[in-house]
Design brief:
heterodimer; A: seven-stranded mixed beta sheet; four-stranded antiparallel beta sheet; 11 strands; B: about 110 residues; mainly beta; five-stranded antiparallel beta sheet; about 0% helix
């Protein structure tokens, strides 16, 4: 299965600033997915990123707040913009591996102060 | 948005005991997966079930898919401290995206 490198693993940021999270996959994939996981809770899909087109956002998530780039088939970034303490969470990227399910990065633990 | 309810939300048991975690929906799954997540890591796939009534075993873990494909269970026999983690079911409804359950946080006490 694919291996995903996600960074940073954690960060503490000031409110009002932005953080860009990067995910690198060791193989080419059509779609990459970005999830948010609040402490102790399940995963909520933020958006699906396709190479060469704009990301598709889920209800409650907007491009101005969570801009996504997908410049090629192995890389994607998620930016959390104009952060507030409510954005403190774990952010995860993932790819679908067919019968092997979804493979996830190790996550970025974000704390906004 | 489809909802997957897991129960219990939290479970803390002694090493060597057995346990069952449940995942329920009001809608029919086309497929269902179980993941385990440890602190500081992303979820890792344990199993995928597709056929109603299907039972899969992975060492001490037994996964069952309900006949109507609306529910699933995960049974762990003789739990060990290494089983500690967040267990997540995730279902696909038709061709829609994967939806994750509410999660069960399991703690095995040595």
């Amino acid at each position: 299965s694919a291996v995903i490198s996600q960074k940073p693993s954690r960060d503490i940021c000031q409110r009002g600033t932005s953080l860009t999270i990067q995910c690198q996959v060791d193989s080419q994939v059509t779609m990459m997915f970005w999830y948010r996981q609040q402490p102790g809770q399940s995963l909520t899909l933020i958006a699906t990123a396709n190479q060469g087109s704009e990301a598709t956002y889920e209800s409650g998530f907007v491009i101005d707040k969570f801009p996504i780039s997908r410049p090629n088939l192995t890389f994607s970034t998620l930016t959390v913009s104009n952060m507030s303490p409510e954005d403190s969470s774990i952010y995860l990227c993932s790819v679908s591996q067919g019968n092997y399910g979804y493979t996830f990065g190790s996550g970025t633990r974000l704390t906004v102060v | 948005t489809q909802l997957l309810e897991q129960s219990p939300q939290f479970l803390s048991i002694q090493e060597g005991e057995n346990l069952t975690v449940y995942c329920n929906s009001s809608s029919v799954f086309s497929s269902l997966q179980w993941y385990r997540q440890e602190p500081g890591e992303g979820p890792v796939l344990l199993v995928t079930v597709v056929t109603g009534g299907e039972v899969k075993k992975l060492k001490r873990l037994t996964f069952q898919f309900g006949d109507a494909r609306k529910d699933s269970s995960l049974h762990i026999t003789a739990a060990q401290p290494g089983d500690t983690g967040l267990y997540l079911c995730a279902g696909r409804f038709g061709n829609e995206k994967l939806t994750f359950g509410t999660g069960t946080r399991l703690t095995i006490i040595p």
